[in-house]
Amino acid sequence: MSSARETTSEFSQTEEKKQILLQTQNLSLLAGERELLSNISLTVSTGEIVTVIGPNGAGKTTLLRVLLGLIAPSSGSIFKKPKLRIGYLPQKITVDPILPLSVSRIMRLTGNYSNRQISNALEETGVGSLKNKPVFQLSGGEFQRVMLARALLRSPELLVLDEPVQSVDYMGESELYKLIGNLRKSHGCGVLMVSHDLHVVMASTDRVVCLNQHICCEGQPEDVSRHPEYLRLFGLDTGSALAVYSHHHDHTHHISGTMKEDEQ
Amino acid sequence: MMILDDFFWRAVFAGMGVALVAGPLGCFVVWRRMSYLGDTMAHSALLGVALGFFLEVNLMLGVFVIAVLVAMLLFFFQRQKQLANDAVLGTLSHASLAMGVLLISLMVWVRIDLMGYLFGDILAVSLVDLYWIYGGGFLILLILFRLWRPLLAITFDNDLAQAEGVPVVRVELIFMLLIAAVIALSMKIIGILLVTSLLIIPVSAARRFSRTPEQMALGGALIGMASVGLGLGASLQIDTPSGPSIVIAAVLFFFAANLLPMRKLQ
After folding, report:
1. Quick one: closest CA in A to B266, which residue?
2. pLDDT tens digits, residue range A107-130?
3. Which residues contact residue A179 at a Cβ distance below 8 angstroms, ignoring those fewer than 6 apart?
4. What is the DSSP letter of A190?
5. How far apart are CA A136 and CA A122, in angstroms?
6. Closest residue in B to A109 (Cα–Cα)
7. Average pLDDT score, chain A
8. Average model confidence (pLDDT) for chain B?
9. Hey, are the CB atoms on A109 and B149 less than 8 Å from each other?
């Protein structure tokens, strides 16, 4: 966990180069009488990882879909950097075995890329060997890495990831978050991510936005995790996750495993 | 063309033309799990037949117009969330079939062989029908060819395709029109109740041998054409309705394809 913290602080040093990629102001979405999103003001800049967390039904996916322009908001404004290139990873895509699609084929579904570009992108996310495999045979983790590679082909300035570790096994989860962190560094892009699991994601993010129709609280992971709104939202039914999480941030370990004093 | 003076060969050419178009189009029906939707549009065809007789226009045109109307209704019903999709489909499907039968029985001045329209009639294909099938079929394939990539992207994931700039609604609407058109073209030879089988069974049989979407489309077209040949041959020999004969032939191909010892799906 300490390595994740180091990357975070490393990035705050380059903060002056930050450019706003996406910004919303007082974004609201109504479905009939019901308010799905209320008064969302959110900013994502280059090189930062912003994670939206919230319980099921909090409107996380809906928020992403509004930001991507798939649904029109009822009110409020969305600013996007002109010609912003977005790499999008939707929530859990299932590919039926009846559809004979190979990995390299889904890489060029909406764009023309050379074999070499495709190989490079797949190598970068660690799945170069899967290039000719049928998509439906991929495991959850493999599939997400392929989809990340696919997003990279568009040389994105912003990665929008909806539950990227869903259907990824526990060991793969932190690996995938690490990969996302690395891609952010090597491509210098911003990352906007949605998640409902708490402890792992918090360790690998710069800013957390806690969503439950409206933004309950936001800030650095450390601050959000102590925020009463956050505790109220997650405290009761995810006690164990919270325990793991607060454990991480109460102290850090030396490589040997002995405890060292927390810097903060 | 002497050969086209013979009703059997007219039926064969009509069936082959229809199967050729049904292969590529049927792939998307299967991939997008739209077979019940196809069924619903097909069931409305009888209403189209009634309309065609009433207005004294080509029956295929009547069927096409009604199928398009039903498709549009479905399209907009799908956007609401009040009723479950299959309930909407079931309602429309049976309502339009019932209306078709009622209207036809009310039009006492026309004599219609209902069995022929429901299950296909090998004697029914005229030279004009052939022109429609090949002209229309060519147009359908041409449009589908241009639509192939965006449709594939939508089939993979709707949101992703839209986020990457595919005009999802337009592509889906055009696709519905193509299904309506192929239903209209194949109605006479396969029959209203069985039309969608030609969209679904041949491509399902072709799946075993396909590694790309295009191979599956081509394989579906070929298996469909073979089913038409075999089915119509049997229909002529043992005097059975053409539609069911073609369907049974296709089903035989399906089982043969799946019984063949082969490596698992690739």
Report:
1. A134
2. 999 989 999 999 999 999 999 999
3. A125, A126, A145, A148
4. E
5. 17
6. B153
7. 81
8. 89
9. yes
| Tokens at B260, concatenated | 């063949």
Q: How many angstroms separate the CA atoms of A234 and A220, rounded?
A: 17
pTM reported for the whole predicted model: 0.84
Helix, strand, coil in percent for chain B, rounding step 5: 80, 0, 20
Q: What is the DSSP string of A203-222?
A: HT-SEEEEEESEEEEEE-HH
- Chain A CB contacts of B215 under 8 Å are 100
Chain B residues within 8 A of A99 when measuring between CB atoms: 31, 155-156, 213
Residue B264 confidence class, pLDDT cut points 50, 70, 90:
low
CB B250 within 8 A of CB B223: yes
- Residue found under tokens 């032939």: B249
ipTM of the complex: 0.83
In this complex, the residue of B165, B215, B266 whose CB is nearest that of residue A110 is: B165
Q: What token pair was written down for A38?
A: 């209320």
Q: Give A259's Cβ-side CA count (13 Å radius).
A: 7
Q: Is B170 exposed, middle or buried (0-12, 13-18, 19+ CB in 10 A)?
A: exposed
- Which pLDDT band, with edges at 50, 70 and 90, does A104 fall under? very high
Residues of A near B (CB-CB distance < 8 A)?
65, 68-70, 86, 88, 90, 93, 95-102, 105-106, 109-111, 134, 154
CA distance B161 to chain A (A): 7
DSSP output for B156-220: H-HHHHHHTT--HHHHHHHHHHHHHHHHHHHHHHH-TTTHHHHHHHHHHHHGGG-SSHHHHHHHH
| Residue B4 vs residues A255, B7, B14, B109: alpha-carbon distances, Å | 85, 7, 10, 31
Asked whether the beta carbons of residue A110 and residue B204 sit closer than 8 angstroms, the reply is no
One-letter identity of residue A242: L
The partner residue sitting opposite B153, judged by closest CB among A102, A109, A134, is A109
Min Cα separation B231/chain A (Å) = 26
- Interchain pair B215, A88: CB under 8 A: no
| B26-31 mean pLDDT | 96
Chain A positions touching B153 (Cβ under 8 A) are: 109-110
Q: Which amino acid is at B72?
A: M
3-state secondary structure labels for all residues of A234-247: HCCCCHHHHHHHHH
CA distance B162 to chain A (A): 7
pLDDT in tens, B208-229: 889 999 999 999 999 999 999 9
In this structure, what DSSP letter does residue A102 have?
B
Encoded amino acid at A247, one letter: H
**How far is the C-alpha of B97 from the C-alpha of B120, rounded, in Å?**
16
